[in-house]
Design brief:
Length: about 325
């Protein structure tokens, strides 16, 4: 089998967009184009119709959106492979990376999402979605990426509860505020706050055998006044895991793995207030040393999501507090 752009094509070369000898062309095909390889001086031969043939194979029952997105993706991926002269060995490494992310992913850790995060794709898609859905000059609370460590079915807790268990050290914090309509300012009843963050050692509970299940996680549902309050910890910066393909890719890219201190939230409204769009977001502690340079391994920081924790007096449960209001956008 020929490698690295040799003019002799392998038997299955049509699957990789490399033309065979002229006698094997389909009737009506244009003669293959030639592109000079950057090394070795040999020519790479491509069937100019190959990519369009793959796109044309999309069947008539595909939805218009599937057709649009997949045709564009196929075109860009094929162009990427040609422009960078991707070899079978390199393609295999890429497939192995994706397979490893899938093998490592569980309901407690989404390594595929983490790969997307470190490449900036998650934050880019978040921005695109926000721009498509936000038309009001009275902006709703900005969104941010979900991250790989969200877990379904966090415990439902009453207001004023603590999500902290068996962690006496750390900066205990009372977080409180109101969930409102971003246009009217009216409080929203039945808004569920799903919150999670790491322990002071920088680990989520599913990463740490010393933490109880669902530690530092909870869900809180607002009443008619739209208010919420709960006890948590002032967050800490931490490195994303280095034991999986995302961490290994960061090493190959010579990039640091650190995330600035943050708390995750998902806001969803219940049957009592069904007309509000769900919100996934994070808030970031202004004191974190990574923030002045917006230095986040997953590119998720937004200026409007940077918050100030202030000292709290007279509360034996907390040394700090954070007041923060969530503004939700409606569908109509």
């Amino acid at each position: 089998m020929a490698t690295n752009g040799s003019e002799q094509a392998p038997p299955d070369s049509h699957r990789q967009g490399i033309s065979t000898a002229p006698t094997s062309q389909h009737a009506g095909d244009v003669a293959p184009t030639h592109e000079t390889a950057e090394s070795g001086g040999s020519d790479l031969k491509f069937n100019p119709n190959f990519t369009q043939n793959v796109i044309n194979a999309i069947g008539p029952k595909a939805t218009p959106r599937i057709r649009q997105v997949m045709a564009s993706m196929i075109q860009h991926i094929h162009d990427f492979a040609r422009e960078n002269k991707i070899t079978v060995d390199e393609w295999t490494k890429g497939v192995e990376l994706i397979n490893a992310a899938g093998a490592l992913s569980t309901p407690k850790r989404n390594e595929g999402q983490l790969l997307s995060d470190i490449l900036g794709l998650s934050s880019l898609v978040d921005t695109i979605t926000s721009n498509l859905t936000t038309t009001s000059p009275n902006a709703a609370t900005s969104s941010a990426i979900l991250g790989p460590f969200w877990r379904a079915n966090a415990p439902q807790l009453p207001m004023s509860s603590s999500i902290v268990h068996n962690i006496p050290d750390g900066d205990h914090t009372l977080m409180h505020g109101t969930v409102t309509d971003h246009l009217t300012g009216d409080p929203i009843e039945g808004a569920e706050l799903d919150v999670w963050h790491t322990a002071p050692n920088g680990l989520y509970e599913q990463q740490d055998d010393n933490q109880i299940d669902m530690n530092l996680r909870g869900r809180f549902t607002t009443a008619k006044d739209g208010r919420y309050d709960f006890y948590c910890l002032r967050p800490t910066s931490y490195p994303i895991p280095g034991d999986g393909p995302a961490g290994k890719l960061l090493q190959l890219l010579d990039r640091h793995p650190m995330r600035p201190a943050h708390i995750h939230f998902i806001e969803e409204t219940q049957v009592s207030a069904p007309n509000y769009k769900p919100l996934t977001t994070q808030v970031f502690d202004r004191r974190d040393k990574l923030l002045p340079n917006n230095d986040d391994a997953v590119f998720a920081v937004k200026e409007e999501l940077i918050v100030d924790f202030v000292p709290r007096e007279g509360d034996p449960k907390a040394q700090f507090e954070l007041a923060y209001d969530f503004k939700l956008a409606s569908y109509c």
